[in-house]
Protein backbone atom coordinates (compact mmCIF):
# COMPACT_ATOMS: atom_id res chain seq x y z
CA UNK A 1 0.00 0.00 0.00
CA UNK A 2 1.35 3.36 -0.89
CA UNK A 3 2.03 5.94 1.74
CA UNK A 4 3.02 8.52 -0.86
CA UNK A 5 1.55 11.87 0.00
CA UNK A 6 -1.14 13.32 -2.18
CA UNK A 7 -0.44 16.38 -4.22
CA UNK A 8 -3.38 18.51 -3.13
CA UNK A 9 -3.98 20.26 -6.44
CA UNK A 10 -7.64 19.78 -7.24
CA UNK A 11 -8.03 17.34 -10.12
CA UNK A 12 -9.75 18.55 -13.24
CA UNK A 13 -13.11 16.90 -13.61
CA UNK A 14 -13.32 15.41 -17.05
CA UNK A 15 -16.43 13.86 -18.55
CA UNK A 16 -16.71 10.11 -18.25
CA UNK A 17 -15.38 8.58 -21.46
CA UNK A 18 -18.30 6.30 -22.11
CA UNK A 19 -21.92 6.76 -21.34
CA UNK A 20 -23.34 3.55 -19.96
CA UNK A 21 -27.08 3.94 -19.96
CA UNK A 22 -27.68 0.72 -18.06
CA UNK A 23 -24.85 1.11 -15.59
CA UNK A 24 -27.10 1.66 -12.63
CA UNK A 25 -29.68 -0.86 -13.62
CA UNK A 26 -27.53 -3.98 -13.50
CA UNK A 27 -26.49 -6.02 -10.51
CA UNK A 28 -23.24 -5.26 -8.81
CA UNK A 29 -21.80 -2.87 -6.29
CA UNK A 30 -22.26 0.89 -6.43
CA UNK A 31 -20.13 3.30 -4.43
CA UNK A 32 -21.58 6.78 -4.12
CA UNK A 33 -19.71 9.82 -2.81
CA UNK A 34 -17.29 7.75 -0.72
CA UNK A 35 -15.03 9.70 1.60
CA UNK A 36 -12.28 7.86 3.50
CA UNK A 37 -9.69 9.62 5.66
CA UNK A 38 -6.16 8.27 5.97
CA UNK A 39 -3.26 9.90 7.75
CA UNK A 40 -5.23 13.14 8.04
CA UNK A 41 -5.98 13.27 4.29
CA UNK A 42 -9.01 12.44 2.23
CA UNK A 43 -7.69 9.32 0.51
CA UNK A 44 -11.13 9.02 -1.09
CA UNK A 45 -12.73 12.37 -1.68
CA UNK A 46 -16.26 11.57 -2.83
CA UNK A 47 -15.60 8.61 -5.13
CA UNK A 48 -18.56 7.33 -7.12
CA UNK A 49 -18.40 4.28 -9.36
CA UNK A 50 -20.23 1.18 -10.48
CA UNK A 51 -18.71 -2.30 -10.23
CA UNK A 52 -20.88 -4.73 -12.17
CA UNK A 53 -21.38 -8.40 -11.40
CA UNK A 54 -20.02 -10.82 -13.97
CA UNK A 55 -17.23 -8.47 -15.02
CA UNK A 56 -13.63 -7.63 -14.20
CA UNK A 57 -13.25 -3.93 -13.37
CA UNK A 58 -9.71 -2.53 -13.41
CA UNK A 59 -8.96 0.29 -10.97
CA UNK A 60 -6.28 2.53 -12.42
CA UNK A 61 -4.62 5.79 -11.41
CA UNK A 62 -1.29 7.11 -10.20
CA UNK A 63 0.43 6.32 -6.93
CA UNK A 64 -1.64 7.56 -4.03
CA UNK A 65 -4.76 8.12 -6.14
CA UNK A 66 -6.86 5.95 -3.80
CA UNK A 67 -7.06 2.51 -5.44
CA UNK A 68 -6.03 0.50 -2.38
CA UNK A 69 -8.24 2.64 -0.19
CA UNK A 70 -11.25 1.99 -2.40
CA UNK A 71 -10.54 -1.76 -2.29
CA UNK A 72 -10.27 -1.63 1.49
CA UNK A 73 -13.47 0.38 1.78
CA UNK A 74 -15.24 -2.24 -0.35
CA UNK A 75 -13.76 -4.99 1.83
CA UNK A 76 -15.08 -3.25 4.96
CA UNK A 77 -11.59 -2.52 6.29
CA UNK A 78 -11.53 1.25 5.78
CA UNK A 79 -14.49 3.02 7.36
CA UNK A 80 -16.18 5.64 5.22
CA UNK A 81 -16.67 9.10 6.74
CA UNK A 82 -19.35 9.78 4.13
CA UNK A 83 -21.02 8.13 1.18
CA UNK A 84 -22.65 4.78 0.61
CA UNK A 85 -21.86 1.40 -0.88
CA UNK A 86 -24.87 -0.43 -2.25
CA UNK A 87 -25.06 -4.08 -3.25
CA UNK A 88 -22.21 -5.31 -1.05
CA UNK A 89 -22.40 -9.07 -0.56
CA UNK A 90 -21.60 -10.47 2.90
CA UNK A 91 -18.77 -12.64 1.59
CA UNK A 92 -15.82 -10.71 0.17
CA UNK A 93 -12.28 -11.81 -0.61
CA UNK A 94 -9.42 -9.30 -0.55
CA UNK A 95 -6.02 -10.12 -2.00
CA UNK A 96 -3.67 -7.53 -0.55
CA UNK A 97 -0.48 -6.24 -2.11
CA UNK A 98 2.40 -8.66 -1.73
CA UNK A 99 4.31 -6.27 0.53
CA UNK A 100 1.38 -6.30 2.98
CA UNK A 101 1.38 -10.06 3.36
CA UNK A 102 3.20 -11.81 6.17
CA UNK A 103 5.98 -13.29 4.06
CA UNK A 104 7.63 -14.91 7.09
CA UNK A 105 4.62 -16.94 8.19
CA UNK A 106 5.67 -20.60 8.51
CA UNK A 107 3.15 -21.81 5.94
CA UNK A 108 3.35 -23.86 2.78
CA UNK A 109 1.64 -22.66 -0.37
CA UNK A 110 -1.15 -25.19 0.17
CA UNK A 111 -1.69 -24.10 3.78
CA UNK A 112 -1.75 -20.44 2.75
CA UNK A 113 -4.44 -21.16 0.17
CA UNK A 114 -6.41 -23.28 2.66
CA UNK A 115 -6.49 -20.25 4.97
CA UNK A 116 -8.89 -18.76 2.45
CA UNK A 117 -11.45 -21.31 3.64
CA UNK A 118 -11.22 -20.33 7.31
CA UNK A 119 -14.29 -18.15 6.91
CA UNK A 120 -16.32 -21.19 5.94
CA UNK A 121 -14.90 -23.87 8.24
CA UNK A 122 -13.37 -21.87 11.10
CA UNK A 123 -9.66 -21.77 11.93
CA UNK A 124 -9.64 -25.21 13.49
CA UNK A 125 -12.22 -26.89 11.28
CA UNK A 126 -11.11 -29.86 9.21
CA UNK A 127 -10.67 -29.41 5.50
CA UNK A 128 -12.89 -32.05 3.88
CA UNK A 129 -12.34 -33.67 0.50
CA UNK A 130 -14.29 -30.91 -1.26
CA UNK A 131 -12.20 -28.22 0.46
CA UNK A 132 -8.97 -29.98 -0.43
CA UNK A 133 -10.10 -30.21 -4.05
CA UNK A 134 -10.88 -26.49 -4.09
CA UNK A 135 -7.42 -25.69 -2.74
CA UNK A 136 -5.74 -27.79 -5.47
CA UNK A 137 -7.96 -26.22 -8.13
CA UNK A 138 -7.12 -22.71 -6.99
CA UNK A 139 -3.39 -23.48 -7.02
CA UNK A 140 -3.74 -24.92 -10.53
CA UNK A 141 -5.67 -21.87 -11.75
CA UNK A 142 -2.63 -19.67 -11.20
CA UNK A 143 -0.12 -22.34 -12.24
CA UNK A 144 1.16 -22.80 -8.69
CA UNK A 145 0.73 -26.56 -8.19
CA UNK A 146 4.49 -26.93 -7.80
CA UNK A 147 4.44 -24.44 -4.93
CA UNK A 148 1.97 -26.41 -2.82
CA UNK A 149 4.61 -27.84 -0.45
CA UNK A 150 7.05 -24.96 -0.53
CA UNK A 151 7.28 -22.53 2.39
CA UNK A 152 5.99 -19.03 1.60
CA UNK A 153 9.27 -17.64 2.93
CA UNK A 154 11.16 -19.69 0.32
CA UNK A 155 9.16 -18.34 -2.63
CA UNK A 156 10.05 -15.55 -4.99
CA UNK A 157 7.89 -12.43 -4.96
CA UNK A 158 5.93 -13.47 -8.04
CA UNK A 159 5.42 -17.01 -6.73
CA UNK A 160 4.11 -15.73 -3.41
CA UNK A 161 1.81 -13.37 -5.24
CA UNK A 162 0.29 -16.25 -7.21
CA UNK A 163 -0.34 -18.19 -4.00
CA UNK A 164 -2.07 -15.15 -2.50
CA UNK A 165 -4.26 -14.85 -5.59
CA UNK A 166 -5.12 -18.56 -5.20
CA UNK A 167 -6.07 -17.83 -1.58
CA UNK A 168 -8.52 -15.22 -2.89
CA UNK A 169 -9.88 -17.47 -5.64
CA UNK A 170 -10.47 -20.47 -3.35
CA UNK A 171 -13.08 -18.49 -1.42
CA UNK A 172 -15.33 -18.21 -4.49
CA UNK A 173 -16.63 -14.98 -3.00
CA UNK A 174 -19.21 -12.97 -4.94
CA UNK A 175 -16.95 -9.94 -4.47
CA UNK A 176 -13.27 -10.52 -5.27
CA UNK A 177 -10.94 -7.58 -4.65
CA UNK A 178 -7.26 -7.68 -5.64
CA UNK A 179 -4.55 -5.09 -5.09
CA UNK A 180 -1.96 -5.26 -7.88
CA UNK A 181 -2.00 -9.06 -7.93
CA UNK A 182 0.40 -9.36 -10.86
CA UNK A 183 2.89 -6.62 -10.05
CA UNK A 184 5.74 -9.07 -9.37
CA UNK A 185 4.59 -11.78 -11.77
CA UNK A 186 6.15 -12.50 -15.17
CA UNK A 187 4.01 -12.02 -18.28
CA UNK A 188 2.87 -15.65 -18.46
CA UNK A 189 1.92 -15.70 -14.77
CA UNK A 190 0.11 -12.39 -15.09
CA UNK A 191 -1.86 -13.78 -18.02
CA UNK A 192 -2.84 -16.77 -15.89
CA UNK A 193 -3.96 -14.51 -13.09
CA UNK A 194 -6.01 -12.47 -15.57
CA UNK A 195 -7.50 -15.71 -16.96
CA UNK A 196 -8.47 -16.75 -13.44
CA UNK A 197 -10.09 -13.38 -12.75
CA UNK A 198 -12.05 -13.61 -16.01
CA UNK A 199 -13.22 -17.08 -14.97
CA UNK A 200 -14.38 -15.78 -11.56
CA UNK A 201 -16.29 -13.01 -13.32
CA UNK A 202 -17.82 -15.52 -15.73
CA UNK A 203 -19.21 -17.29 -12.65
CA UNK A 204 -20.99 -14.04 -11.78
CA UNK A 205 -18.60 -12.45 -9.28
CA UNK A 206 -17.88 -8.74 -9.02
CA UNK A 207 -14.12 -8.71 -9.65
CA UNK A 208 -12.19 -5.50 -8.93
CA UNK A 209 -8.46 -5.35 -9.56
CA UNK A 210 -6.14 -2.42 -8.90
CA UNK A 211 -3.41 -2.43 -11.51
CA UNK A 212 -0.68 -0.37 -13.14
CA UNK A 213 -0.32 -2.97 -15.90
CA UNK A 214 -1.56 -1.94 -19.34
CA UNK A 215 -2.14 -5.50 -20.48
CA UNK A 216 -4.29 -6.29 -17.46
CA UNK A 217 -6.20 -3.06 -18.03
CA UNK A 218 -6.80 -3.98 -21.67
CA UNK A 219 -8.07 -7.42 -20.62
CA UNK A 220 -10.57 -6.04 -18.11
CA UNK A 221 -14.22 -5.64 -19.03
CA UNK A 222 -14.32 -2.08 -17.76
CA UNK A 223 -12.16 0.37 -15.90
CA UNK A 224 -12.36 3.09 -13.28
CA UNK A 225 -9.77 5.89 -13.18
CA UNK A 226 -9.01 7.49 -9.83
CA UNK A 227 -7.22 10.78 -9.31
CA UNK A 228 -6.76 12.39 -5.89
CA UNK A 229 -9.44 10.19 -4.38
CA UNK A 230 -12.01 10.98 -7.04
CA UNK A 231 -13.29 8.84 -9.89
CA UNK A 232 -12.54 10.95 -12.95
CA UNK A 233 -13.40 8.42 -15.66
CA UNK A 234 -15.07 5.05 -15.95
CA UNK A 235 -16.14 2.86 -18.81
CA UNK A 236 -14.50 0.74 -21.49
CA UNK A 237 -10.79 0.06 -20.77
CA UNK A 238 -9.54 1.67 -23.98
CA UNK A 239 -11.55 4.84 -23.35
CA UNK A 240 -10.33 5.03 -19.76
CA UNK A 241 -6.73 4.43 -20.88
CA UNK A 242 -7.13 7.31 -23.37
CA UNK A 243 -8.53 9.55 -20.63
CA UNK A 244 -5.62 8.64 -18.37
CA UNK A 245 -3.09 9.42 -21.13
CA UNK A 246 -4.80 12.76 -21.88
CA UNK A 247 -4.70 13.75 -18.20
CA UNK A 248 -1.04 12.78 -17.93
CA UNK A 249 -0.21 14.86 -21.02
CA UNK A 250 -2.18 17.83 -19.66
CA UNK A 251 -0.36 17.58 -16.33
CA UNK A 252 3.01 17.57 -18.10
CA UNK A 253 2.17 20.44 -20.46
CA UNK A 254 3.08 23.35 -18.10
CA UNK A 255 6.42 21.70 -17.22
CA UNK A 256 7.18 21.12 -20.92
CA UNK A 257 6.34 24.75 -21.76
CA UNK A 258 8.54 25.92 -18.87
CA UNK A 259 11.41 23.71 -20.09
CA UNK A 260 10.97 25.10 -23.60
CA UNK A 261 11.06 28.70 -22.30
CA UNK A 262 14.19 27.85 -20.31
CA UNK A 263 15.77 26.34 -23.42
CA UNK A 264 14.98 29.48 -25.44
CA UNK A 265 16.55 31.70 -22.80
CA UNK A 266 19.59 29.48 -22.71
CA UNK A 267 19.84 29.53 -26.51
CA UNK A 268 19.61 33.33 -26.54
CA UNK A 269 22.26 33.58 -23.83
CA UNK A 270 24.51 31.22 -25.72
CA UNK A 271 24.12 33.05 -29.05
CA UNK A 272 24.62 36.50 -27.49
CA UNK A 273 27.73 35.26 -25.74
CA UNK A 274 29.19 33.77 -28.95
N1 LIG B 1 -1.47 3.47 6.03
C1 LIG B 1 -1.64 4.73 5.63
N2 LIG B 1 -1.52 5.75 6.50
C2 LIG B 1 -1.70 7.03 6.12
N3 LIG B 1 -2.03 7.39 4.86
C3 LIG B 1 -2.15 6.43 3.96
C4 LIG B 1 -1.96 5.04 4.29
N4 LIG B 1 -2.16 4.30 3.17
C5 LIG B 1 -2.45 5.18 2.20
N5 LIG B 1 -2.43 6.45 2.67
C6 LIG B 1 -2.69 7.68 1.89
O1 LIG B 1 -3.94 7.52 1.25
C7 LIG B 1 -3.88 8.04 -0.08
C8 LIG B 1 -4.34 6.96 -1.05
O2 LIG B 1 -3.42 5.89 -0.98
P1 LIG B 1 -3.71 4.49 -1.68
O3 LIG B 1 -2.77 3.51 -1.06
O4 LIG B 1 -5.15 4.19 -1.62
O5 LIG B 1 -3.28 4.82 -3.18
P2 LIG B 1 -3.05 3.83 -4.41
O6 LIG B 1 -3.79 4.42 -5.57
O7 LIG B 1 -3.39 2.44 -4.04
O8 LIG B 1 -1.49 3.98 -4.68
P3 LIG B 1 -0.39 2.95 -5.27
O9 LIG B 1 -0.61 2.89 -6.75
O10 LIG B 1 0.89 3.62 -4.92
O11 LIG B 1 -0.57 1.63 -4.57
C9 LIG B 1 -2.45 8.52 -0.28
O12 LIG B 1 -2.43 9.91 -0.07
C10 LIG B 1 -1.67 7.85 0.79
O13 LIG B 1 -0.61 8.69 1.22
UniProtKB/TrEMBL annotation:
Q: Does the keyword ATP-binding apply?
A: yes
* Highest taxon listed in the record's lineage: Bacteria
Instruction: Cite the InterPro entries for this sequence.
Output: AAA+_ATPase, ABC_transporter-like_ATP-bd, ABC_transporter-like_CS, Metal_Ion_Import_ABC, P-loop_NTPase
Indicate, by first and last residue, each region the UniProt record lists as having compositional bias (Basic and acidic residues).
Answer: 1-10
The segment(s) forming the ABC transporter domain are 29-253
Keyword Transport assigned to the entry: answer is yes
Region: Disordered; residue ranges are 1-30
Q: Which family does it belong to?
A: Belongs to the ABC transporter superfamily.
What's the protein called, per UniProt?
ABC transporter domain-containing protein
Organism per entry: Agrococcus terreus
Amino acid sequence: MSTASLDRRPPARTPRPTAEPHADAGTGVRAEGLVVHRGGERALDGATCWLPAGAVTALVGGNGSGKSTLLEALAGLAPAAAGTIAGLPAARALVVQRTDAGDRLPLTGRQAVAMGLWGERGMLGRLGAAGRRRVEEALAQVGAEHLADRQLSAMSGGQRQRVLVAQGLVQRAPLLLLDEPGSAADDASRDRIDDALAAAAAEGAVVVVATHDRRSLARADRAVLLDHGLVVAEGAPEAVAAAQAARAAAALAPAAAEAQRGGAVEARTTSSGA
